[in-house]
Amino acid sequence: SHPLHEPPTGEPQMPPSTLLRQITDYTNRADPYSLYTELRKTPVARQEDGTYAVSTYRAIHGLLHDPRISSDLRNRAPRDGDPGPAADGGGLPQTMIRLDPPEHDKLRRQAMRPFGPPHTPRRIADMHDELAGISAGLLDGLAGRQRVDIVEDFAYPFPVSVICRVLGVPREDETRFHTWADAIIASIDPNPDEDPAELQHTGEQARMQIGQYMAGLIEQRRHEPRDDMLSGLVHDDGPDGPMSPIDVITNSVLLLIAGHETTVNLITNGMLTLLRNPDVMERLRRDPSLMPGAVEELLRFEPPVQLLPQRTPVSDVEVEGVTIPAGAPMMLVLGSGNRDPDRFDHPDRFEPERTDVEHFGFGSGIHSCFGAPLARLEVQLALGDLLRRLPNPALAADPPPYRRNPILRGPRHLLVDCDPVLA
């Protein structure tokens, strides 16, 4: 049912077992999508290193909802070079995204109670004006400029400030979080000119410093609760009881890192996509009510997380006629599923009015991004403000330079020339 199509004459066919290596190769970062087209011809392709790359929408969706698929690296058959289960840590225990039910479910329930519906339905919506103020403040600082780096000047600082406000970090301490976030991101997305071991060490130190800072703030909130997420986690009286202090720290760091990286990429990829589609940009300027739909289409078209590694079947699983053995590493290629023509009409077109947009931009299944409501609001506000305040914007370079990280894919810089930024 999935025949291998013959490539056009003269075009060498790439063996399916090498495609993941090519997709993650930095030279293909600006445009992995033609490689995804090739990969989908073999929906489940065993790679040279034994990883099973899964690339079609149907297969990815099935696996994300399959209880036999584990997110816990302790279920993986050991291999040479594996980082092991504590790789994202700095000495902290596993976050909920690296755990399976029932541990995962309990932590997620505890995290959601002070964050969103049904227990705290207004937490994010009521922050609209505060988030708009952060965005406006960043753009006020650029007034009169005729060249803007969307990443450094706006998309990078914005989410850290937002997450600090959600958690309840005092304003005067936000700059420390920016410094820690910089160090952690550099360890995840190393610059080839820098010593990776040193970056790793600095990143782990930053995680420990955040942990120590959060421990102090948790203790403070224990005695003086406020209307913030941290107080909610510490004083939760739900059926699971309050989260343990170490889990509050671990999952606060998760919110900072995961919420920061994905939102930076979403804002930057969004601006890049709009600048490449000036007619769409003009429609959004004229009719801001289209922005929520445009952000959903953006999550499909240029998702901030392209690849989902660290999934492992706990028993043999058959997918599209291929048996993936228990313990084998899997890579779900979300960026490919989002462009699957068997699922989406004209998948390589950016269409903000598209009505059927069940994308993998926030994953799917039990590990779907619990920060999604916050990310949606941030990106809608950010792109709306950028369109309003950057007159006649144009890309200074296309493609822009990309970050090294193939999983969290986005431009490292996005230089935009415009008429003077409006005050």
Give an account of the 3D structure.
The chain has 15 helices and ten strands. It is globular, with a radius of gyration of 22 Å. With 423 residues, it is an alpha+beta fold. The strands form three sheets. A five-stranded mixed beta sheet has the order 1-2-8-5-3, with helices on one face. The N and C termini lie far apart (58 Å). The chain has helices at residues 19-24, 33-39, 57-64, 103-112, 128-140, 150-155, 157-167, 174-188, 196-223, 229-234, 245-276, 278-286, 291-301, 334-337, 372-389; strands spanning 44-46, 52-54, 69-70, 147-149, 308-313, 317-319, 322-324, 330-332, 394-395, 415-417. Helix 7 (157-167) packs across helix 8, helix 7 packs antiparallel against helix 11 and helix 11 runs parallel beside helix 15 (372-389). The longest helix is centred in the middle third of the chain and has 32 residues, at 245-276.
